[in-house]
Structures are given as structure tokens and as C-alpha cells.
Write a structure and sequence with these properties.
The protein has helices spanning 51-58, 81-91, 107-118, 123-135, 151-162, 181-196, 208-211, and strands at 7-20, 23-36, 40-44, 66-71, 74-75, 92-96, 169-173, 200-204, 216-221, 224-230. It is of the alpha/beta class. The chain has a single domain, classed as P-loop containing nucleotide triphosphate hydrolases (Rossmann fold), CATH 3.40.50.300. β4 and β5 form a beta hairpin. The two termini are 29 Å apart. It binds adenosine-5'-diphosphate and magnesium ion.
Amino acid sequence: MQADPSLAASIQNLSKNYALAGETVRALRDVSFDVPSGDYISIMGPSGSGKSTLLNLLGCLDQPSSGNYWLGGDDVAAMNDDELSETRALRIGFVFQSYNLLSALTVVENIEVPLYYSGRITPKLRKRCLDLAKRVGLESRLGHRPAQLSGGQQQRVAIARSLVNDPRFMLADEPTGNLDSKTTDEILELLRELNEEERTIILVTHEPDVAEQTKRSIFLHDGSIVSDERR
Ligand code: ADP
Ligand code: MG
């Protein structure tokens, strides 16, 4: 069944099984929910409950065993490899707990990395990267390398990098998991601003304080949704 194209995403009866040493691990079991455009959702649940599995499916990094995933009006299962790469590159912004910056590159060069992947290195887009570095508060750190930055600053670089292609859909797996509480608040403030710009955000967290800053929390247990509450 086709989803409402005004939704940012629609997840319908999604399941994911992994084969492991002859056993089947049912990491995600028949999960369904709609994501209205502009929503800000935290995915919570104990370790092993399927949070990362779900986020990987939402990020088109993996395929479900069964069920449907509509991104905007598009059926992700019907996309070929090129369309999947383009979707990941242009429509989805990823932020990870471990930042995943390139240690040899400066702040600005790290933010420019998506331009190299897409082969579109125009002066206008490089200017956009510089503007994004300023936007996340790193104007005085442009030439620094990751090792010269605090964890919070590194996560700001990662967030700026995720914004280069102006995605409307952002996915974050424990984005504040390595940060102290003050830095966590700063990163959450940045995410709140991005959500206010009508970007849809789904983040995984096990911290109730972080979840409280989102509009809606979905709890997973053993691969199933056990609650879905809007604040
Ligand atoms: P969470 O992020 O909530 O900790 P995961 O989504 O990482 O949970 O894992 C859900 C379940 O799937 C766990 O039982 C985990 O061991 C299993 N799992 C995750 N990835 C794989 C994999 N690549 N192969 C086999 N089992 C996996
Ligand atoms: Mg995980």
C-alpha cells in the first residue's frame, strides 16, 4: 500500500532477521509507524532491542527481510543501487556517536567530504561548507584537525558535514553518547534548531534527558515497538 507522500516516511510491518551461526536473530519484528514531516523522534530501548537495526534500515544502509519503507512518496525497496546511493547522499543526513571524521583533514575539509563523493566541488558549494562551519560555531577552528578539537566540536563538524546537501531527513545514532551533559545540551540545541527548520529528525538514545528534548519517543523491546508517545 502506497504511503501518504506528505509524510516524511512511513514504516509498514518492517522486519529484519540476521542469520548467525545457524540461528535466526529476529532483530526487528513487524515494526510500523508514520513519520510526519517535521517530526523529531527519539528511538529508545535496551541494548540489543533493535535500535541500530531500525536506524540502518531508515538510512537505506540495509534492506529489511520483509515489510515496506516509504521515504517521502518513494518505495525504498524499488530503488536500484544508484538510486539508493543518491538517496543516502542527498536526502538523508547521518550523525554517529563516533563522529567518523577523517583525521588528516581540517574542519572545513571534513565538512567538504560529501562534495568529493558527489564530484560537485563548486565555489558556491565550498562557500556553503564554510557557512556551515560558522553556523555550528566553529569559525575560529576552521583549520584545526579532529585531534585538536573537543568531542562536542567534533560532533559539530559531523553535523555540519551531514548538512552539506541540505537533507530534509536526519538520522542520528547516539549523537551525544560520548559527550558530557553541558556539551550534550549544546548539540541538542543545534538539533532543535535544525528541526525548527522543518527537518525531520530521528535519533537513537538511551538517555531519558535526551529523549525529553524530542517531540515523540518510540520504545523498542526485542525488536518490537512497546510504546510510541508524543510529548
Ligand atoms: P541496539 O542498537 O538496540 O543495541 P541492534 O539493532 O544493534 O540493537 O541489535 C538487535 C539484535 O540484532 C541484537 O540481538 C544483535 O545481536 C543482533 N544483530 C545486530 N546486527 C547483527 C548482525 N550483523 N548479525 C547478526 N546479528 C545482529
Ligand atoms: Mg545500537
